[in-house]
């Protein structure tokens, strides 16, 4: 993991003031934590971030924007580190405080802090253990982002890309663990956000749509929807001349066609195979139990 970058404007204070001293000391301690993280010394890094929080308490004005900006950065660090050491409850508490602070910071400077709001959404996507809660928060916070971000700048674009990848990663992880429907919800959010950011269907959206269809194919009742999805995205793949994606789409459609041929015969065969295996296992177990019985000898 790497520490999030939030530039702090020290030039807004008088040189040598209490404000500058507190911020400078906390920033120096945070820099030490970054070095420890680079060497995978996670507990030492956590101790340094906690120390930086104590040093920041010396700042005289808790309503100051620079104070709150650095506090948010340190809370990002703590949330990541507590999650890494599996203190999930504490990590979730820190995410909650991050959003409260960002609401205040965005009122002060939308252009500067809107990207951090999206960074926090990506962080919450990875950290929140309740996937229902994570999705609800994302929907709520995406509406907030629309309010605070009237125009897309490079910072927001980069942060949004990070959120999209976080959603995509969680979706793939859930699907790989067998929670297909939850995985699809996260992928759907990633696709929707990606389309909204670009304003068109790009290679990235096509790839994620294919991943979505692959998950749908694992649920029998959703295969017709998977087919419709693939047929809808195929013209986009052809138009963009993405040969490998076009081939992936056609291969998935062919797989579904193969599965649909004589499905009743296949199900009957698999049922018989399972039944025969079970019968053999039961018969073998009975024979073993009989052979294990003591032989009675006459006296």
Keywords, please?
299 residues; mainly alpha; 12 helices; elongated
Describe this structure in words.
Helix content is 78%, strand content 0%. α3 (65-84) packs antiparallel against α4 (88-108). By secondary structure, the protein is mainly α. It is elongated.
Question: Outline of this structure?
Answer:
The protein has 299 residues and is mainly α. The chain has helices spanning 18-38, 42-56, 65-84, 88-108, 110-127, 131-148, 154-176, 180-198, 203-216, 223-239, 243-260, 263-292.
Kindly state the percentage of residues in helix: over 70%
In round numbers, the mean pLDDT is 80
Q: In this structure, how is the largest beta sheet organized?
A: none
Structural class: mainly alpha
Low-pLDDT parts are 148-152
Question: What proportion strand?
Answer: under 5%
> What would you call the shape?
elongated
Rg over alpha carbons = 28 Å
Q: Count up the helices.
A: 12
Compute the number of strand runs. 0
Any chance you could write out the topology, listing elements then pairs?
Elements: H1 18-38, H2 42-56, H3 65-84, H4 88-108, H5 110-127, H6 131-148, H7 154-176, H8 180-198, H9 203-216, H10 223-239, H11 243-260, H12 263-292
């Amino acid at each position: 993991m790497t520490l999030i970058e939030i530039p702090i404007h020290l030039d807004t204070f008088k040189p040598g003031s209490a404000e500058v001293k507190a911020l400078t000391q906390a920033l120096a301690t945070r820099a030490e934590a970054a070095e420890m993280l680079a060497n995978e010394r996670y507990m030492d890094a956590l101790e340094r971030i906690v120390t930086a929080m104590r040093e920041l308490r010396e700042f005289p004005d808790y309503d100051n924007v620079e104070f709150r900006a650095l506090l948010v950065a340190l809370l990002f660090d703590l949330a990541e580190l507590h999650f890494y050491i599996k203190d999930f409850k504490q990590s979730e508490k820190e995410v909650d405080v991050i959003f409260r602070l960002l609401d205040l910071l965005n009122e002060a400077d939308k252009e500067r802090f809107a990207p951090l709001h999206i960074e926090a959404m990506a962080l919450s996507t990875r950290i929140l253990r309740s996937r229902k809660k994570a999705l609800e928060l994302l929907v709520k916070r995406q509406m907030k982002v629309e309010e605070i971000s009237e125009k897309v700048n490079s910072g927001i674009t980069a942060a949004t890309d990070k959120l999209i990848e976080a959603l995509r990663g969680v979706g793939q992880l859930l699907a790989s663990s067998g929670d297909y429907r939850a995985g699809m919800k996260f992928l759907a959010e990633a696709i929707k956000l990606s389309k909204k950011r670009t304003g068109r269907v790009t290679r990235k959206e096509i790839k994620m749509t294919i991943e979505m269809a692959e998950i749908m194919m694992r649920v029998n009742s959703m295969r017709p929807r998977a087919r419709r999805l693939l047929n809808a995205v195929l013209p986009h793949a052809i138009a963009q001349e993405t040969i490998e994606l076009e081939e992936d789409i056609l291969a998935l459609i062919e797989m579904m066609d193969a599965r649909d041929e004589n499905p009743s015969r296949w199900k009957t065969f698999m049922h018989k195979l399972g039944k025969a295996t079970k019968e053999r296992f039961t018969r073998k177990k009975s024979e073993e139990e009989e052979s294990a019985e003591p032989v009675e000898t006459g006296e």
